[in-house]
Amino acid sequence: MKFSISREALLRPLTLVAGVVERRQTLPVLSNVLLQVQDDQLALTGTDLEVELIGRVAPDQVDEPGSATVPARKLMDICKSLPEQSEINFAIEEGRAVLRSGRSRFTLSTLPVAEFPNIEDGPGNIELSLPRGTLKHLIDATSFAMAQQDVRYYLNGMLLELNSNLVRTVATDGHRLAVCSRPADIDVDPPQKLIVPRKGILELTRLLGDSDEPVNLTVGASHVRAHTGEFTFTSKLVDGKFPDYERVVPRGGDKVLIAERAELRQVLSRTSILSNEKYRGVRLQLEEGNLRVTANNPEQEEAEENVAIEYSGDGMEIGFNVSYLIDVLTVLNEDRVQLTLSDPNSSALMEEPGGGDAMYVVMPMRL
Amino acid sequence: MTTPTRKILHADCDCFYAAVEMRDRPELADVPLAVGGSAEKRGVIATCNYPARAYGVRSAMPTAKALRLCPDLMVLPPDFERYRVVSRQIQAIFHDLTALVEPLSLDEAYLDVSTVTRFRGSATWMAQWLKQETYQHTGITLSVGAAPSKFLAKVASDWNKPDGLCVIEPERVDAFLQELSVKRLHGVGPATAAKLEEMAIHTCGELREWPLDILIDRFGKFGYRLYELSRGIDEREVAVTRERKSVSVETTFDRDLPDFEACSQALDPLNHKLRQRLERQGNPPLDKVFIKVRFDDFSITTQETAGQEPSSTHYRSLLEQIWYRNPRPVRLLGVGVRLTPPEGQRQLSLSLGTV
């Protein structure tokens, strides 16, 4: 194998593909990236057995097709630290990978290509296409609420619901839940519910830009695959049943307030400085036209903020993990935000005033 | 803000388990004696008396190694019931002096005697009284250190063990630290000591000459602690009730468990014991479950997951993750739970329903 390519052309796919490669590996070959050169095209593959990403790019020159696996992070670090616009020559010589650029030369170890695993995937039974921006929006609006390392393993991922003319994402860690739906020109019958693991979601969203260009999805029994032209992303699916979000969204809230989103976010961020570092509790005191936010920490330091709101109802005090509120205010796009509450022990509903495509449910903290 | 100088005592029984055995069988007093697990069952030494120490026997040493160093070593199995009885007597004496007692184990405690007016408020006399009372009532000798902080009190109690008494008066702290070996600082093990050695730091006096930013740079968060300790700063209070952070059960096997199946089967009895222990504590709210594995090469690994239930299924899946990374014979298995601290119990959960 022998080819040459510009540093910039190689770095973009390499960075994304290396992102899939875990730092701690069970199999040595999983620390490597698979390079395959064929017909004027270079394909780079990284995998952790759960998620696989293939990036493609055209080298400037292909002298000899072939394939090899080399340490992903080292290759990336070398390419990153070369001067901009460098031309990189890559060749396999006597079983070692030799990278030359200008007056630099690096010799990297390789592992047999045959050892490099690929995610075995059954036949895809559903194929559909979505605008990349739509899928990215759905993921970005909800991914913060995914659980991490929860024993309820199905929460360590995102529910992707494919219906006729509608796509929905749902994520929850048991304390808060995020759901977002968008219309789409698809026809899936019967509706499909996939749970994509956390890592798969985080990698997938890095590939998707905001463009209206399509991303093609292939759904199999145990895998989902996304094609975006130069990238092919495959993730295993989580086998499990995701909680029904409709049972969680509160319906009976009678205290509805509207606040300026950016202002409320700043108020909460400032207050959070003096909340308990780990549990992040803040107290919201709701009164007509005003919301008072207070926090204190184990050192008995205190923060108090007041912010004008649209509200005319009974007063109430309720506690929240301030990070949960800030997370929601960060992903909402509207200038204003609506909060619906009922009592200090029941969940709050956060959304755009009048309801947008996303809904957020946050459980309070006992005061 | 200036806080009034504190008076902290650290009281530590001299080779406690062995001392109880020697008290009850005086003929053992002059022979090398240890309390611990048997070599056949790959036990370790819990405590040994001073004749045994002369041979190089130390606590936490595998019994097999101890017997190689001292073939005549008499190794008794521990009798915790008896030790607990003695411990309760000693703790009662501590409580006679002050209510501010923080027990660290059966044979060791911190006492805050800052406000004690007996003995004219003299920490030295209080320490002497503790030693006397303890010896009279239990026949156990105590080493006591007195100082203005916990860490110095602990260093002091260790200063002229056994049957020691060392007082570091506030005005003497500075000079004492100047010459104190950094190896005496809590948290300085062989690795840190070697690093300090490279920097030509042997005493706290030498350590004090290094600025905080360099210490943090070289030792991370511990650099800050080193900076403080070398200046005698240790604001930790004598905590009367220590907050329990986790509950666990572990066991070292007579023979290494060779494979996943054997380990997996060993989980059930451990988990059963854990549940009993949790029940005795009123089933406190749980934050995480974890598993601990020590392999035949003595390396230790743990794996934990956020969740609520210490079930065998969950432990098996954690074990699987460890096994996947590093399949090798297992010497010790432990299962445990991390408890939700009171502050964390305030967050309410969504009712996701039974899925």
What features would you describe in this structure?
The complex is a heterodimer of chains A (367) and B (355). Chain A is built from seven helices and 25 strands. By secondary structure, chain A is α+β, with helices and mostly antiparallel strands. Chain A folds into three domains: 114 residues, DNA Polymerase III, Chain A, domain 2; 121 residues, DNA Polymerase III, subunit A, domain 2 (DNA Polymerase III, Chain A, domain 2); 113 residues, DNA Polymerase III, subunit A, domain 2 (DNA Polymerase III, Chain A, domain 2), CATH 3.10.150.10. In chain A, strands 6-2-3-4-17-16-15-10 form an eight-stranded antiparallel sheet. The longest helix of chain A is centred in the N-terminal third of the chain and has 14 residues. In chain B, a hairpin with an 8-residue loop joins β2 and β3.
Features:
heterodimer; A: 367 residues; alpha+beta; DNA Polymerase III, Chain A, domain 2; 8-stranded antiparallel beta sheet; B: 355 residues; Alpha-Beta Plaits; MutS, DNA mismatch repair protein, domain I; DNA polymerase, domain 1; 4 domains; 5-stranded mixed beta sheet; 4-stranded antiparallel beta sheet; 12 strands; 38% helix; globular; DNA_pol_Y-fam_lit_finger_sf (chain B); mutator protein (chain B); DNA polymerase IV (chain B)
What is the number of strand segments of chain B? Answer: 12
Helical residues, percent of chain A: 10-25%
Distance linking N and C termini of chain A: 65 Å
- What is the top-level CATH class of the largest domain in chain A? Alpha Beta
Mean pLDDT of chain B: 89
Helix count from the secondary structure assignment of chain A: 7
Biggest sheet architecture of chain B? 5 strands, mixed
By CATH, the architecture of the largest domain in chain B is named: 2-Layer Sandwich
Helix and strand element order of chain B: EHEEHHEHEEHEHEHHHHHEHEEHE
In brief, what are we looking at here?
Chain A is an alpha+beta fold and 367 residues long.
Topology:
The complex is a heterodimer of chains A (367) and B (355).
Chain A: E1 2-6, H1 7-20, E2 32-38, E3 41-47, E4 51-57, E5 61-64, E6 66-71, H2 72-81, E7 87-93, E8 96-101, E9 104-108, E10 126-131, H3 132-142, E11 157-163, E12 166-172, E13 176-183, E14 192-197, H4 198-207, E15 214-219, E16 223-227, E17 231-236, H5 245-248, E18 255-260, H6 261-272, E19 281-287, E20 290-296, E21 302-308, E22 316-321, H7 322-331, E23 336-341, E24 348-351, E25 358-362
Antiparallel strand pairs in A: 1-5, 1-7, 2-3, 2-6, 3-4, 4-17, 7-8, 8-9, 10-15, 11-12, 11-14, 12-13, 13-25, 15-16, 16-17, 18-23, 19-20, 19-22, 20-21, 23-24, 24-25
Helix pairs in contact in A: 1-2, 6-7
Chain B: E1 8-13, H1 16-24, E2 33-36, E3 45-48, H2 50-53, H3 63-69, E4 74-76, H4 80-97, E5 101-105, E6 108-112, H5 123-138, E7 142-147, H6 150-157, E8 165-167, H7 173-179, H8 190-198, H9 204-208, H10 212-219, H11 221-230, E9 246-257, H12 260-280, E10 286-295, E11 300-306, H13 312-325, E12 330-339
Parallel strand pairs in B: 2-4, 7-8
Antiparallel strand pairs in B: 1-6, 1-7, 2-3, 5-6, 9-12, 10-11, 10-12
Protein name (chain B): DNA polymerase IV
Family (chain B): Belongs to the DNA polymerase type-Y family.
Keywords (chain B): Cytoplasm, DNA damage, DNA repair, DNA replication, DNA-binding, DNA-directed DNA polymerase, Magnesium, Metal-binding, Mutator protein, Nucleotidyltransferase, Transferase
